[in-house]
Amino acid sequence: MLKLEDYETIFVLASLVGTLLIASPALIFVFPSRAVERFSELYVLGPNRMAEGYPFNLKANETYRVFLGIGNHMGSSAYYVLYVKFRNQTEPLPNCTSGAPSSLPALYEYRTLVPDGETWETLLTFSFPYVSCFGNQSLVRALTVNDLMIRVEKPALWDSENYGYYYQLFFELWIYNVESADFQFHNRFVGIWLNATASQ
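User: That's the sequence. What structure does it adopt?
Assistant: Structure tokens below.
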């Protein structure tokens, strides 16, 4: 049999639990939930959809394949532009510190709307129909991206430290900004290095 003090304790505990249950919606404002980090991911995979087997030693007129992907973790659907760019070793990459994109022109682009929590992925094929090496310089005259031939006229000097003529195919991610009603660089880029030494 319970004593009067025991009933008092049960009554106080039940009252406390009831008060917390009733007040719990208001406690959200007092103790805000932890902020969720919002971000986009950008990746490039090799021809077998793995982070390996990337093309490196170029041969003229050989077709190469990579897979590009965008993951949306922004909290809502996002509209993206993915620019394909091509550079030699001395030309600028995007600047992550200042958030500035590369000043090089885009050779190809993808536009896609990606729902929150989902991933978009596509196959990119590329080849180099006109590559020449002479003296201490190579020249990529054209690049084919997804069957579209683009003239680039891009020279590269011999890199005596790494023994090759190096270029980089890289991809910049831009996102649509509703406030400015325009796309802005999303401070994300990835790329693959290519060696044109064995291209002939």
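The first strand starts at residue 39 and ends at 45.
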